[in-house]
Amino acid sequence: MLPRETLDTTVLPPGERFGMWLELVARTSAPMRVRSEHDEDFIARADFVDLGPIQLISYDYPSLDAFRTPKLIRQSDPELYILALTTGGVGTSSQDGRRSEIQAGEFTFYNASRPHDLGHHATEPERDQASSIITMIPHAALPLPPQRMAALYGGRMSGSEGIGALLAQFLLQVTGHPEQYHAADASRLGAVGLDLATTMLGRHLVAEDAVPTEVRRRALLTQVQAYIHRHLGEATLSPQVVADAHHISVRSLHRLFEAEDATVASYIRDLRLARCRRDLTDPALRSQPVQMIAARWGFSDKAHFSRAFRAAYGTPPQDHRESGSDLARMVNRRASTVNSLPAD
């Protein structure tokens, strides 16, 4: 599981919860002054996920306003950029004279080394809570011209299309399901998140050429792979379809995969075969014909699927299904035997 720390104010009595939150904010890398009308019973939670080059914080809290003052900056300047995704409620962001209203599903960006103020307010009357995911990026880790970044401070960026949508999905997945990853995955995930954030920010600077070539390549590769995963069950999925969806040539798509262990076509085929292999041994799908499972994952030709599956796994699909069923029956028999043994 990814390294994660959680703070939940509900472990304390209502009158002590806001004080606990203020202590948390004071201990963060970029402390702020916080004001809330819910200070008498501040029900909030923060989940910290350390991904090596970046840190993610998932927040859920009552409506509040926060201020990063010159005095606080003098006391603590970690030289961080903050990229914030609003996931619930409506936010406001203000820095260097630029002020924006941030809706759920949108990003804002600011520099923790400069004064700024933020507001985040709930929009659901029955649940006076707001939520966000914060990405903390060290200045030195962001490979974009520092002198250009001020153009983005306090602005808004979409999290529902293009690279922004992919970055938002990444943040929601990692913070929402950290148990699905190993601690050893943290640095690699951090690098992926940093590449996506860099590419999105670079595009909003209208200076994508300022993004290092390798960062752009890795970000585009991540975007292409995510597209393939989403459309894996479509029989028409092909290198040409993938290239057209990303407005690049097939030749450029093949070059994108040159550093990988697979071509575009083999990447699609191997993913499809892996899904079929999983479903063939799923007891819940036992009644479904083999070809129905194959068709679900884009194999419309029965003979072609059988040959590809046997070449990949050394056994025909039906035999693999039977061996999986035999294994399941053996495990169940052993469990029944153990359960029937007399107690000591």
Layout of helices and strands:
Layout lengths: L3 E5 L5 H14 L5 E3 L9 E6 L4 E7 L2 E5 L1 H6 L4 E9 L1 E6 L2 E5 L3 E6 L4 E6 L8 E9 L16 E4 L3 H15 L9 H19 L8 H18 L8 H7 L4 H7 L7 H17 L9 H7 L5 H12 L3 H24 L4
Antiparallel strand pairs: 1-3, 2-5, 3-4, 4-11, 5-10, 6-9, 6-11, 7-8, 7-10, 9-12
Description of the molecule:
A hairpin with a 2-residue loop joins strand 7 and strand 8 (98-102). The chain is globular and about 70 Å long. The two termini are 37 Å apart. The chain has helices at 14-27, 70-75, 162-176, 186-204, 213-230, 239-245, 250-256, 264-280, 290-296, 302-313, 317-340, and strands spanning 4-8, 33-35, 45-50, 55-61, 64-68, 80-88, 90-95, 98-102, 106-111, 116-121, 130-138, 155-158. Helices cover 42% and strands 21% of the residues. With 344 residues, it is α+β, with helices and mostly antiparallel strands.
